[in-house]
Design brief:
Elements (H helix, E strand, L loop, with lengths): L19 H12 L5 H11 L2 H14 L11 H13 L2 E4 L20 E5 L8 E6 L5 H16 L3 E4 L5 H8 L5 E4 L13 H9 L3 E4 L11 H11 L3 E5 L6 H11 L3 E5 L9 H8 L3 E2 L3 H12 L21 H10 L5 E2 H8 L3 H13 L3 E4 L3 E4 L1
Parallel strand pairs: 3-4, 3-7, 4-5, 5-6, 7-8, 8-9
Antiparallel strand pairs: 1-2, 2-6, 10-12, 11-12
Helix pairs in contact: 1-3, 1-4, 3-14, 5-6, 8-9, 12-14
Length: 380
């Protein structure tokens, strides 16, 4: 059975350390209107830095048809947010910095800045996610706790979403060995509120909590799927213990598959609707789990492959400096409320990938485009 050494790390080389000015620029760009993690990455890849991208935002939004420029987060606001975070014990870390989970930095929509509270060394160790039903059965809660405890004893960090049910059982069973809570809201807006004591125990025992949201942000329904991509993205694999059809846990499993992570599922009774989703995952090819060794042995080959992912990549998505109006009209005409892949758009419109990406970026910054997983886009 594989057992990572106590000081084993999931590391991306080379490591970096931002200056305060660079951290402020990153905060300003990601907090500006209509800029999400994917857009942030595209802008920085193309323009070379967050500061240069900030200067181009008004022009790009205007070209996308915005009646007025979106709000750009000011330097003073960014400084105030960073200062308030420090008082709360939060460090904002960028991909490649100590305390930013290495595998999380590799996903397409990795947060440009991650709010980290607790022991940053925990975030550099190999992680397994355990998720499942909020109204889990007693058997499901017991098994989730057993898996978490044995994974912790084997040297893995358990990561989950601090929710009721399976998440709570997994966190509590792995407090002693190290666990990470991924928050849907700000660090001062714990959900559910009664898990404040659990979070305190996690932080008191060399665990950590992470979020991409600012202080004061109360989690909304749409924030939980965003949180789930962090749970799956930071981990080697995701274990689903009891999940009904159309549950948040299945969203996490789907995201894990899209991110190239391993998907595991614990089988349950066909008579229990709480197990229906997990049983379906097994039918679709997820690894069946009846003991921790099933997980540990499955991730052994992944653990043997070092992570080598450059922090700064060459511009893999070039832009056109100024697409022609007929290109914009043609691309916009092919878009609608139903998501379509960017590759299909390129094939259908006959324009170059550079032109298509530029028009999509302009529309997004104008607040007219929504990006979905799997390279899909749609009009708002």
């Amino acid at each position: 059975m594989l057992r990572p050494q106590g000081d084993a790390v999931d590391a991306i080389n080379p490591s970096v350390e931002l200056t305060e000015a660079e951290r402020i620029d990153r905060m300003r760009l990601i907090r500006s209107d209509n800029v999400g993690p994917r857009t942030f990455r595209s802008l920085v890849d193309h323009f070379g830095s967050p500061r240069a991208a900030l200067e181009r935002l008004p022009d790009l939004a205007r070209r996308g048809g915005a009646q007025r420029s979106g709000r750009i987060y000011s330097a003073d606001e960014a400084r105030a947010e960073l200062a308030a975070s420090r008082k709360f014990g939060i460090a904002w870390r960028a991909p490649g910095e100590d305390g930013y989970a290495a595998r999380l930095a590799m996903i397409d929509d990795a947060p440009p800045l991650l709010a980290v509270r607790g022991d940053t060394k925990t975030l550099m160790r190999p992680m397994i996610a355990i998720v499942g039903s909020r109204n889990a059965s007693g058997a499901g809660l017991k098994f989730a706790g057993l898996l978490a405890r044995e994974l912790g004893e084997a040297g893995f960090i358990v990561i989950s979403g601090l929710a009721r049910g399976v998440d709570q059982a997994a966190h509590r069973a792995s407090v002693a060995s190290g666990t990470i809570a991924v928050l849907a809201g700000g660090h001062d807006c714990i959900y559910p509120p009664e898990h404040g004591d659990l979070l305190a125990a996690i932080l008191d025992h060399a665990g950590a909590a992470i979020s991409e949201m600012p202080l004061g942000h109360d989690p909304r329904a749409r924030d939980f799927p965003r949180r789930n991509r962090l749970i799956s993205g930071a981990s080697l694999g995701v274990v689903v213990v009891e999940a009904a059809h159309r549950s948040g846990s299945l969203i996490t499993a789907r995201m894990a598959a899209e991110q190239g992570r391993e998907v595991f599922a614990v089988p349950g009774s066909p008579l229990d609707p709480r197990a229906a989703g997990a049983n379906d995952l097994i039918k679709q090819g997820a690894t069946l789990v009846t003991e921790a060794a099933d997980i540990i042995n499955a991730v052994a080959p992944i653990m043997e492959r070092p992570l080598m992912h450059p922090v700064s990549e060459p511009d893999s998505e070039p832009f056109e400096s100024d697409p022609q109006s007929h290109d914009r009209n043609q691309i916009t005409g092919l878009l609608g409320p139903t998501p379509i892949s960017i590759d299909d758009l390129v094939r259908m419109c006959g324009a170059s990938p550079a032109i298509v990406r530029t028009v999509l970026l302009e529309l997004e910054l104008a607040g007219k485009l929504e990006r979905h997983g799997g390279g899909l886009v749609s009009l708002l």
